[in-house]
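U., I forgot to send this yesterday:
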Amino acid sequence: MISAAPTVTCMPGGAGVAGAGGASGVPGSSAAGGGGRPVRVLVVDDDALVRAGLTMMLDGAPGIAVVGDENILHALRAGASGYLLKDTPPARIAEAVRQVAAGEPILSPRITRRLMDRVAVQAGAYARARTTLATLSPREQDVVAAIGQGRSNTEIATVLDMTLATVKTHVSHILTKLGLDNRTQIALLAHDAGLA
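Result:
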């Protein structure tokens, strides 16, 4: 995310400013009012109107150059180093971009709480899914993982070197043992367990 000209990501929807840090934003750089390169910003939000507004606001801030729009999931996968809420004042957003570019993480206390709660829920789902999968045979667990990867019964048979009838039998046993109704629930279990 940060290269020769640092790029910072702004994520205001659910989460605000994000980036990977860098050397820009330090005294003497254009991000701090000096003559260096501007901080390059990628604006991220799942709402197009919010992205457009932030793009206009940040593009007019000294030392900041907006280089594009993205959605939140892409930015999260790329690794974010700061978050602000949508109700953050415009001047604070520009200041936060510079701080993130300088390598200082920015995290709103309310976002910290939400992230902690989400991690706790996800950790609980992971633990429950792993415990549930432990009741299956190793071969049934392989079938669960393959279903979680979106494979058809025919593909599973090929990948796991078994007959189509054997795959169908395993799927039926998995549904019965786990009290599930369909393959989608198996796929969700695989996802929660980190297999997909």
